[in-house]
Amino acid sequence: xxxxxxxxxxxxxxxxxxxxxxxxxxxxxxxxxxxxxxxxxxxxxxxxxxxxxxxxxxxxxxxxxxxxxxxxxxxxxxxxxxxxxxxxxxxxxxxxxxxxxxxxxxxxxxxxxxxxxxxxxxxxxxxxxxxxxxxxxxxxxxxxxxxxxxxxxxxxxxxxxxxxxxxxxxxxxxxxxxxxxxxxxxxxxxxxxxxxxxxxxxxxxxxxxxxxxxxxxxxxxxxxxxxxxxxxxxxxxxxxxxxxxxxxxxxxxxxxxxxxxxxxxxxxxxxxxxxxxxxxxxxxxxxxxxxxxxxxxxxxxxxxxxxxxxxxxxxxxxxxxxxxxxxxxxxxxxxxxxxxxxxxxxxxxxxxxxxxxxx
Length: 359
Description:
The protein is elongated and about 130 Å long. The chain has helices at about 1-70, 75-100, 105-120, 125-130, 145-170, 175-205, 210-235, 240-265, 280-285, 290-359. The protein has 10 helices and no strands. It starts with a helix and ends with a helix. The longest helix has about 70 residues, at about 1-70.
Protein backbone atom coordinates (compact mmCIF):
# COMPACT_ATOMS: atom_id res chain seq x y z
CA UNK A 1 0.00 0.00 0.00
CA UNK A 2 2.79 2.37 0.99
CA UNK A 3 4.85 1.65 -2.16
CA UNK A 4 1.80 1.99 -4.39
CA UNK A 5 1.00 5.39 -2.98
CA UNK A 6 4.62 6.53 -3.46
CA UNK A 7 4.58 5.35 -7.10
CA UNK A 8 1.36 7.20 -7.78
CA UNK A 9 2.74 10.34 -6.20
CA UNK A 10 5.91 10.15 -8.29
CA UNK A 11 3.89 9.48 -11.47
CA UNK A 12 1.68 12.48 -10.76
CA UNK A 13 4.74 14.64 -10.11
CA UNK A 14 6.44 13.60 -13.36
CA UNK A 15 3.20 14.10 -15.29
CA UNK A 16 2.78 17.54 -13.75
CA UNK A 17 6.24 18.49 -15.01
CA UNK A 18 6.27 16.83 -18.44
CA UNK A 19 2.73 17.36 -19.72
CA UNK A 20 2.72 21.21 -19.47
CA UNK A 21 6.19 21.34 -21.03
CA UNK A 22 5.16 19.04 -23.89
CA UNK A 23 1.94 21.03 -24.38
CA UNK A 24 3.87 24.32 -24.54
CA UNK A 25 6.29 22.95 -27.11
CA UNK A 26 3.42 21.46 -29.11
CA UNK A 27 1.70 24.86 -29.19
CA UNK A 28 4.91 26.60 -30.32
CA UNK A 29 5.47 23.90 -32.94
CA UNK A 30 1.94 24.38 -34.27
CA UNK A 31 2.61 28.12 -34.46
CA UNK A 32 5.77 27.43 -36.48
CA UNK A 33 3.82 25.11 -38.81
CA UNK A 34 1.28 27.90 -39.36
CA UNK A 35 4.10 30.31 -40.21
CA UNK A 36 5.56 27.83 -42.69
CA UNK A 37 2.18 27.37 -44.38
CA UNK A 38 1.47 31.12 -44.46
CA UNK A 39 4.82 32.06 -45.98
CA UNK A 40 4.72 29.17 -48.45
CA UNK A 41 1.33 30.50 -49.54
CA UNK A 42 2.66 34.06 -49.77
CA UNK A 43 5.57 32.90 -51.92
CA UNK A 44 3.14 31.22 -54.31
CA UNK A 45 0.93 34.31 -54.47
CA UNK A 46 3.84 36.68 -55.12
CA UNK A 47 5.15 34.49 -57.94
CA UNK A 48 1.65 34.27 -59.44
CA UNK A 49 1.36 38.06 -59.27
CA UNK A 50 4.73 38.38 -61.00
CA UNK A 51 3.67 36.00 -63.80
CA UNK A 52 0.39 37.86 -64.28
CA UNK A 53 1.93 41.31 -64.56
CA UNK A 54 4.77 40.19 -66.80
CA UNK A 55 2.23 38.52 -69.06
CA UNK A 56 0.15 41.70 -69.12
CA UNK A 57 3.21 43.76 -69.99
CA UNK A 58 4.26 41.34 -72.73
CA UNK A 59 0.91 41.19 -74.52
CA UNK A 60 0.58 44.98 -74.38
CA UNK A 61 4.00 45.41 -75.97
CA UNK A 62 3.30 42.70 -78.52
CA UNK A 63 0.07 44.27 -79.74
CA UNK A 64 1.99 47.47 -80.45
CA UNK A 65 4.54 45.49 -82.45
CA UNK A 66 1.73 43.94 -84.48
CA UNK A 67 0.28 47.33 -85.33
CA UNK A 68 3.72 48.64 -86.20
CA UNK A 69 4.18 45.73 -88.59
CA UNK A 70 0.85 46.52 -90.26
CA UNK A 71 1.99 50.11 -90.79
CA UNK A 72 5.62 49.61 -91.72
CA UNK A 73 6.46 46.02 -92.72
CA UNK A 74 5.79 44.28 -96.01
CA UNK A 75 5.70 40.82 -94.40
CA UNK A 76 3.49 41.81 -91.48
CA UNK A 77 2.00 38.30 -91.24
CA UNK A 78 5.27 36.89 -89.91
CA UNK A 79 5.30 39.42 -87.07
CA UNK A 80 1.64 38.78 -86.28
CA UNK A 81 2.35 35.04 -86.14
CA UNK A 82 5.21 35.59 -83.65
CA UNK A 83 2.98 37.83 -81.57
CA UNK A 84 0.20 35.25 -81.63
CA UNK A 85 2.49 32.47 -80.41
CA UNK A 86 4.23 34.63 -77.80
CA UNK A 87 0.94 35.88 -76.38
CA UNK A 88 -0.43 32.36 -76.16
CA UNK A 89 2.63 31.27 -74.18
CA UNK A 90 2.54 34.25 -71.80
CA UNK A 91 -1.16 33.82 -71.08
CA UNK A 92 -0.88 30.07 -70.55
CA UNK A 93 2.03 30.57 -68.15
CA UNK A 94 0.11 33.18 -66.15
CA UNK A 95 -2.96 30.93 -65.94
CA UNK A 96 -0.82 28.02 -64.77
CA UNK A 97 0.75 30.12 -62.01
CA UNK A 98 -2.64 31.45 -60.97
CA UNK A 99 -4.12 27.96 -60.73
CA UNK A 100 -1.20 26.87 -58.53
CA UNK A 101 -2.33 29.26 -55.77
CA UNK A 102 -4.96 28.50 -53.15
CA UNK A 103 -7.19 31.46 -54.05
CA UNK A 104 -10.85 30.55 -53.88
CA UNK A 105 -11.47 32.55 -57.07
CA UNK A 106 -8.54 31.10 -59.03
CA UNK A 107 -10.66 28.94 -61.34
CA UNK A 108 -13.06 31.77 -62.19
CA UNK A 109 -10.22 34.24 -62.75
CA UNK A 110 -8.33 31.77 -64.95
CA UNK A 111 -11.49 31.00 -66.93
CA UNK A 112 -12.08 34.71 -67.51
CA UNK A 113 -8.55 35.12 -68.89
CA UNK A 114 -8.93 32.05 -71.11
CA UNK A 115 -12.32 33.25 -72.40
CA UNK A 116 -10.94 36.70 -73.32
CA UNK A 117 -7.99 35.02 -75.04
CA UNK A 118 -10.31 32.79 -77.08
CA UNK A 119 -12.43 35.76 -78.12
CA UNK A 120 -9.34 37.70 -79.16
CA UNK A 121 -7.91 34.80 -81.15
CA UNK A 122 -11.15 34.76 -83.12
CA UNK A 123 -10.26 38.26 -84.35
CA UNK A 124 -6.85 37.26 -85.68
CA UNK A 125 -8.11 36.43 -89.20
CA UNK A 126 -8.88 40.13 -89.59
CA UNK A 127 -5.27 40.94 -88.70
CA UNK A 128 -3.92 38.43 -91.22
CA UNK A 129 -6.34 39.70 -93.86
CA UNK A 130 -5.08 43.25 -93.36
CA UNK A 131 -1.46 42.05 -93.41
CA UNK A 132 -2.06 40.37 -96.78
CA UNK A 133 -2.87 43.71 -98.40
CA UNK A 134 -0.17 45.92 -99.94
CA UNK A 135 1.23 48.18 -97.27
CA UNK A 136 -0.21 51.35 -98.81
CA UNK A 137 -3.74 49.91 -98.70
CA UNK A 138 -3.69 48.84 -95.06
CA UNK A 139 -5.82 50.60 -92.49
CA UNK A 140 -4.87 50.73 -88.80
CA UNK A 141 -8.55 50.91 -87.87
CA UNK A 142 -9.00 47.35 -89.12
CA UNK A 143 -6.62 46.13 -86.38
CA UNK A 144 -8.54 47.73 -83.53
CA UNK A 145 -10.97 44.85 -82.76
CA UNK A 146 -8.01 42.53 -82.14
CA UNK A 147 -6.04 45.30 -80.41
CA UNK A 148 -8.93 46.04 -78.06
CA UNK A 149 -9.37 42.30 -77.46
CA UNK A 150 -5.82 42.15 -76.15
CA UNK A 151 -6.79 45.02 -73.87
CA UNK A 152 -9.67 42.91 -72.56
CA UNK A 153 -7.24 40.08 -71.79
CA UNK A 154 -5.06 42.56 -69.91
CA UNK A 155 -8.10 43.73 -67.95
CA UNK A 156 -8.76 40.14 -66.87
CA UNK A 157 -5.08 39.73 -65.96
CA UNK A 158 -5.06 42.92 -63.89
CA UNK A 159 -8.23 41.79 -62.12
CA UNK A 160 -6.55 38.49 -61.21
CA UNK A 161 -3.46 40.39 -60.08
CA UNK A 162 -5.65 42.59 -57.87
CA UNK A 163 -7.18 39.57 -56.15
CA UNK A 164 -3.72 38.06 -55.68
CA UNK A 165 -2.38 41.34 -54.26
CA UNK A 166 -5.26 41.66 -51.81
CA UNK A 167 -4.63 38.12 -50.57
CA UNK A 168 -0.96 38.98 -49.96
CA UNK A 169 -1.86 42.23 -48.22
CA UNK A 170 -4.40 40.56 -45.94
CA UNK A 171 -2.05 37.70 -45.05
CA UNK A 172 0.90 39.98 -44.26
CA UNK A 173 0.29 43.72 -43.78
CA UNK A 174 4.09 44.21 -43.71
CA UNK A 175 4.05 43.71 -47.49
CA UNK A 176 1.43 46.43 -48.05
CA UNK A 177 3.98 49.14 -48.98
CA UNK A 178 5.64 46.90 -51.55
CA UNK A 179 2.21 46.10 -52.98
CA UNK A 180 1.64 49.87 -53.24
CA UNK A 181 4.88 50.20 -55.23
CA UNK A 182 3.72 47.49 -57.60
CA UNK A 183 0.25 49.01 -58.07
CA UNK A 184 1.57 52.54 -58.68
CA UNK A 185 4.22 51.24 -61.07
CA UNK A 186 1.63 49.36 -63.09
CA UNK A 187 -0.58 52.46 -63.12
CA UNK A 188 2.28 54.33 -64.78
CA UNK A 189 2.92 51.47 -67.22
CA UNK A 190 -0.71 51.21 -68.23
CA UNK A 191 -1.49 54.89 -68.64
CA UNK A 192 1.80 55.90 -70.20
CA UNK A 193 1.52 53.01 -72.66
CA UNK A 194 -2.04 53.86 -73.62
CA UNK A 195 -0.86 57.36 -74.61
CA UNK A 196 1.25 55.67 -77.25
CA UNK A 197 -1.81 53.91 -78.63
CA UNK A 198 -3.93 57.07 -78.71
CA UNK A 199 -1.22 59.06 -80.50
CA UNK A 200 -0.12 56.36 -82.97
CA UNK A 201 -2.68 57.15 -85.69
CA UNK A 202 -2.45 60.99 -85.51
CA UNK A 203 1.35 60.94 -85.57
CA UNK A 204 1.22 58.57 -88.55
CA UNK A 205 -1.11 60.85 -90.49
CA UNK A 206 0.07 64.25 -89.28
CA UNK A 207 -3.51 65.35 -88.54
CA UNK A 208 -4.19 67.56 -85.53
CA UNK A 209 -5.61 65.86 -82.46
CA UNK A 210 -9.36 65.80 -82.13
CA UNK A 211 -10.94 67.09 -78.89
CA UNK A 212 -11.64 63.55 -77.67
CA UNK A 213 -8.00 62.59 -78.28
CA UNK A 214 -6.74 65.68 -76.47
CA UNK A 215 -8.95 64.84 -73.50
CA UNK A 216 -7.84 61.19 -73.53
CA UNK A 217 -4.15 62.07 -73.61
CA UNK A 218 -4.63 64.59 -70.80
CA UNK A 219 -6.40 62.05 -68.61
CA UNK A 220 -3.77 59.39 -69.29
CA UNK A 221 -0.91 61.80 -68.63
CA UNK A 222 -2.54 62.91 -65.38
CA UNK A 223 -3.00 59.32 -64.19
CA UNK A 224 0.58 58.46 -65.15
CA UNK A 225 1.94 61.50 -63.33
CA UNK A 226 -0.14 60.64 -60.26
CA UNK A 227 1.46 57.19 -60.24
CA UNK A 228 4.92 58.75 -60.45
CA UNK A 229 4.12 61.09 -57.57
CA UNK A 230 2.93 58.17 -55.43
CA UNK A 231 6.11 56.22 -56.23
CA UNK A 232 8.26 59.17 -55.15
CA UNK A 233 6.38 59.36 -51.84
CA UNK A 234 6.71 55.63 -51.25
CA UNK A 235 10.43 55.69 -52.11
CA UNK A 236 11.02 58.42 -49.51
CA UNK A 237 9.84 56.17 -46.67
CA UNK A 238 12.37 54.48 -44.39
CA UNK A 239 13.07 50.81 -44.92
CA UNK A 240 12.72 50.81 -48.72
CA UNK A 241 15.56 48.96 -50.45
CA UNK A 242 18.16 51.16 -52.15
CA UNK A 243 17.75 49.19 -55.39
CA UNK A 244 14.02 49.86 -55.50
CA UNK A 245 14.60 53.57 -54.82
CA UNK A 246 17.19 53.69 -57.60
CA UNK A 247 14.91 51.97 -60.11
CA UNK A 248 12.01 54.29 -59.28
CA UNK A 249 14.33 57.23 -59.98
CA UNK A 250 15.46 55.80 -63.32
CA UNK A 251 11.90 55.03 -64.29
CA UNK A 252 10.70 58.53 -63.39
CA UNK A 253 13.43 60.22 -65.42
CA UNK A 254 12.75 58.08 -68.49
CA UNK A 255 8.98 58.59 -68.38
CA UNK A 256 9.36 62.37 -67.96
CA UNK A 257 11.78 62.48 -70.90
CA UNK A 258 9.49 60.33 -73.06
CA UNK A 259 6.50 62.55 -72.26
CA UNK A 260 8.52 65.61 -73.31
CA UNK A 261 9.37 63.82 -76.58
CA UNK A 262 5.67 63.08 -77.14
CA UNK A 263 4.71 66.68 -76.50
CA UNK A 264 7.30 67.86 -79.03
CA UNK A 265 5.85 65.57 -81.69
CA UNK A 266 2.26 66.54 -80.90
CA UNK A 267 3.20 70.21 -81.38
CA UNK A 268 4.07 69.37 -85.01
CA UNK A 269 0.65 67.94 -85.82
CA UNK A 270 -1.77 69.78 -88.09
CA UNK A 271 0.91 71.44 -90.24
CA UNK A 272 0.02 69.47 -93.36
CA UNK A 273 3.42 67.81 -93.67
CA UNK A 274 2.23 64.22 -93.35
CA UNK A 275 3.57 61.71 -90.84
CA UNK A 276 5.47 63.33 -87.98
CA UNK A 277 7.37 60.14 -87.15
CA UNK A 278 7.64 56.70 -88.74
CA UNK A 279 5.68 53.84 -87.20
CA UNK A 280 8.79 51.86 -86.22
CA UNK A 281 10.53 54.90 -84.76
CA UNK A 282 7.42 55.79 -82.78
CA UNK A 283 7.18 52.29 -81.34
CA UNK A 284 10.88 52.31 -80.46
CA UNK A 285 10.77 55.70 -78.74
CA UNK A 286 7.48 55.04 -77.00
CA UNK A 287 8.69 51.67 -75.70
CA UNK A 288 11.87 53.26 -74.34
CA UNK A 289 10.75 53.63 -70.69
CA UNK A 290 8.99 50.26 -70.50
CA UNK A 291 12.12 48.38 -69.43
CA UNK A 292 12.71 50.81 -66.55
CA UNK A 293 9.03 50.77 -65.53
CA UNK A 294 8.78 46.99 -65.52
CA UNK A 295 12.14 46.76 -63.74
CA UNK A 296 10.80 48.89 -60.88
CA UNK A 297 7.61 46.84 -60.69
CA UNK A 298 9.49 43.54 -60.67
CA UNK A 299 11.92 44.91 -58.07
CA UNK A 300 9.00 45.47 -55.70
CA UNK A 301 7.97 41.86 -56.37
CA UNK A 302 11.57 40.72 -55.82
CA UNK A 303 11.60 42.53 -52.48
CA UNK A 304 8.30 40.88 -51.55
CA UNK A 305 9.72 37.49 -52.49
CA UNK A 306 12.84 38.20 -50.41
CA UNK A 307 10.71 39.06 -47.38
CA UNK A 308 8.57 35.94 -47.72
CA UNK A 309 11.66 33.74 -48.25
CA UNK A 310 13.29 35.19 -45.16
CA UNK A 311 10.15 34.64 -43.12
CA UNK A 312 9.77 31.12 -44.52
CA UNK A 313 13.37 30.24 -43.67
CA UNK A 314 12.89 31.53 -40.12
CA UNK A 315 9.63 29.59 -39.82
CA UNK A 316 11.39 26.37 -40.91
CA UNK A 317 14.18 27.11 -38.42
CA UNK A 318 11.67 27.60 -35.60
CA UNK A 319 9.90 24.39 -36.56
CA UNK A 320 13.19 22.47 -36.53
CA UNK A 321 14.06 23.92 -33.12
CA UNK A 322 10.64 23.05 -31.72
CA UNK A 323 10.86 19.52 -33.12
CA UNK A 324 14.32 19.06 -31.59
CA UNK A 325 13.18 20.39 -28.23
CA UNK A 326 10.10 18.17 -28.34
CA UNK A 327 12.15 15.05 -29.02
CA UNK A 328 14.65 16.06 -26.33
CA UNK A 329 11.92 16.71 -23.80
CA UNK A 330 10.20 13.40 -24.48
CA UNK A 331 13.52 11.57 -24.09
CA UNK A 332 14.22 13.47 -20.88
CA UNK A 333 10.79 12.63 -19.47
CA UNK A 334 11.20 8.96 -20.38
CA UNK A 335 14.69 8.77 -18.90
CA UNK A 336 13.60 10.64 -15.78
CA UNK A 337 10.67 8.28 -15.27
CA UNK A 338 12.94 5.27 -15.67
CA UNK A 339 15.41 6.83 -13.26
CA UNK A 340 12.69 7.42 -10.67
CA UNK A 341 11.51 3.84 -11.11
CA UNK A 342 14.99 2.40 -10.70
CA UNK A 343 16.40 4.73 -8.05
CA UNK A 344 13.35 5.47 -5.90
CA UNK A 345 10.29 3.36 -6.58
CA UNK A 346 11.97 -0.06 -6.73
CA UNK A 347 14.21 0.51 -3.65
CA UNK A 348 11.12 1.63 -1.76
CA UNK A 349 9.30 -1.53 -2.82
CA UNK A 350 12.23 -3.61 -1.61
CA UNK A 351 12.32 -1.72 1.67
CA UNK A 352 8.59 -2.14 2.11
CA UNK A 353 8.87 -5.85 1.44
CA UNK A 354 11.72 -6.18 3.95
CA UNK A 355 9.76 -4.36 6.65
CA UNK A 356 6.72 -6.50 5.97
CA UNK A 357 8.80 -9.71 6.40
CA UNK A 358 10.14 -8.48 9.72
CA UNK A 359 6.70 -8.05 11.20
